Amino acid sequence: MSGICGFSQTGAGATQGCLDAMMAACSLPGESGCEGLAGNSIALGVSRRWPYQQICRISGVQIAVDADLYNLEELSNILVREGIDAAQMSLAETLASLYLLRGPDFVKHLQGAFSVAIWDERRKELLVAVDRFGFKTLYWSLDGDRLLFASRVGAVRAAQKVSAEVNPAAITQFLLFSAVPAPLSIYKGIERLSPGFLLIFRDSKVATRRYWDLEYPEDHSHNEKYWARELREEMRAAVHRHLVDSSAQMTGAYLSGGTDSSSVVAFTSDRFKPTNSFSISFPVEGFNEIGFARTIAERFATSHHEYCLSPEDAAAAIPKLIRYYDEPFANSSAIASYHCALLARENGVDTLLAGDGGDELFGGNSRYETDKQFGLYHSIPGWMRQRLIEPVASLLPTSDGWLSLPRRYIRRAQMPNPRRILSYNLFLNVEAQKVFEPGFLEQISEPALLAIAEKHFRSAHASSELNRLLYMDVKMTLADNDLRKVSGTAELAGVRVRYPLLDTRLAEFSGRIPARLKLKGMEKRYIFKQAMKGILPDSVLYKTKHGFGVPLGEWFLNDSRLKSLVQDVLRDPRTQQRGYFRREFLDELISLHKQGNAGFYGEIVWYLVALELWHREHLESFREVSSVR
Q1: 194, 210, 226 — which closes off a domain?
Q2: pLDDT in tens, 492-508
Q3: 414 located within any domain
Q4: Which of 242, 377, 558, 567 could form a disulfide with 498 if both were Cys (CB 3.0 to 4.6 A apart)?
């Protein structure tokens, strides 16, 4: 927990106690301290863990910044060309000077992870912004005529005059996606600023606007060899850019054994020999990719480190993760990510490169292949589908037997995206009346369940179905989930993370690659594989994808400590009295988990356990503290 926070209220003096409460809510033990600036209409604070978390005041501008940028030299050169001596400037002074020079558009020049807040005394205006992909987060709330903002939702809550209430819509989104997607937060009246957006607060009014977005202007004027060659060099350059101000001894890379992390290791090895690599293995068949990780470690002669994750490790990590994430968060692979970052820290590494982004930029998820299989149905002439195929299929049984397969295929193929690609989700396939208590049902809207996903899908600047799905996953799978998982668990372990495959130049380049080369036929990330041929071994390039999944569902069944956790939480009257889930649904879910498909149902069990533990750790404890005050 570190970052920035503050509030603005036109004409009002800042309350130091309020700012102190916000900074404390952003802090973790071991951080180097908090610092604040308070004055008329504004208060800014920073809870510092890293050197790039700074605060300053220059030339009528106050700034709080949390920015791990890899183009600081470029920013300094912009100032120098304007006759400004930037040689001795701190990061905060550099960004404040850039703002004075370029106004709100200064954020377009920043490359890397950042959240920033700037108070312009002359304009009586507060600007807050986050980076393009959501490496950093910012929450905000309009509390009367006062704007509150912070890197953590708990810090906004700490400054609110009224108690925050849980947002029922956020609960349903969490159940669908294992995290609360922007612009929602878990609380009514608090929003999360979406990646690539800035917010301006002036005269007690809020205005948000997008300053950057990923677009897909497919370029069909080049052949495969061109795209493969250019992609390889763009990836190489992106990795090298993310190694700026890093040392070989203190830098490493996550290595899952997949193509993304392997590619990052490969290009890091151009500069750092040996590259430090870190892997997690599991003592469960079907989840272990350690053999592929070892292949890459040997291929590039890395200084390789491994840790075999046990159920005991998971049980020990769960309370730490629940405390850290102050919104419900149930990406189970966070357990592995945390231990991998901890392994790096224990070996003297303070910076890790992650491979996140490759799937979403280049079409690497198996869901894209599956969806294309359903999409092929629409290549059949409409008259044939309507007059022949569908009437015949309607005569087939609706059971789960093989004779029902054509009927089930047609039913799914007729779903529009993004509902079709998300239709595997349990909560989209069970009647809400069977899941939720009547009182909770009255507070939610079933038609709105996919509203956020559908908005992303529709708003993509793309002409192909695949790129629309990739865009949606950049916004939700990455920004709302995976990046928060990796960045959060790394911070908890005391490590910073950089994401070279989400380099702006590389991401924009990926948008120009024709969609047919990302998923060619039924081969996922086709052009990526062509680019990495000869660099990565074929055994890694063409392996079955596993990812960083944790066998939590199986451990819930077979490990006594984790099994007790599930039983103690889901059978507890407190859980059943939340007013969310019907008792019959909880019983049936536990039964289905025991009967088979432990991975699928075990994940749903984890969602419910994590949600209840969040209530106890963050909601109930906050109310207890508030009542003492």
Answers
A1: 210
A2: 999 999 999 999 999 99
A3: no
A4: 242
